[in-house]
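Quick log. Single chain, no ligands specified.
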Amino acid sequence: MGSLLAIVYLMVVYSYMVEPFGFRWRAIFGDPSYPKGYEIHGIDISHHQGKIDWIKLGNAMIDRTYIRFVMVKATEGADYIDENFYDNFSNARKAGFIRGAYHFWSTLSTAREQASFFLDNVKLEVGDMPPVLDVENKPDNMSLEEFQMEILAWLHLVEDKYHTKPIIYTYYKFKEAYLNDQRFDDYPYWIAHYYVSEMQYEGKWKFWQHTDVGRLPGIKGFVDLDIYNGSFYDLEKLTLTKEMLEEPEDFLPANMSQEDSVAMM
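-> predicted structure:
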């Protein structure tokens, strides 16, 4: 009887404490597992990675392939710039990576304020990824429709500037709960889903952040690892072109209303 109880106990421990986090534990202890069937690997970084040795990172490999892209945290809310953004963003290009910049959505300011702040502080160039909106929180005092309209407002304002649809980063349960609307279907998705061998989100997606405990030469501590769902040629086609960066004569900055523009004439 005692042996049977011990076996049951071990099965419960494995099912609820070991198996769901097996990928995380293997990554922490130096035996990482990577999603199979994907060729294009990348990372995303912020000031949490500290000072990066870009020469070492430029020669680093994931699953025997070189890193192709780096997503860099740029702004948050309407008044915060990541302290390492400008250095990381510049060095990512110098090191030969396709780079992207992302804005972390805040529940404390409006979509227009946040879009204006992002556009004022982030200058994307030809060959960069489309702008990225990282959205992971919904205000408790805002209805679902109001929340979705705010997210769409940020996306539309930034799309008007860069003439391409921004990438939406979120985790797959949040997507299902709060962004499961056809108005978001045309946007490229970057889905966070950790410690699993296969993506469980069934919709269309471009990027998968599959772990937050990756380790690479040139970075002290952990770093998020990502894959791109396609070929390197497809990834390059996603990047900004010269035509996308040309502003039409009637373009209004995100913080300027039509009335303001008339007053300036």
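Confidence is low (pLDDT under 50) at residues 10-31, 257-265.
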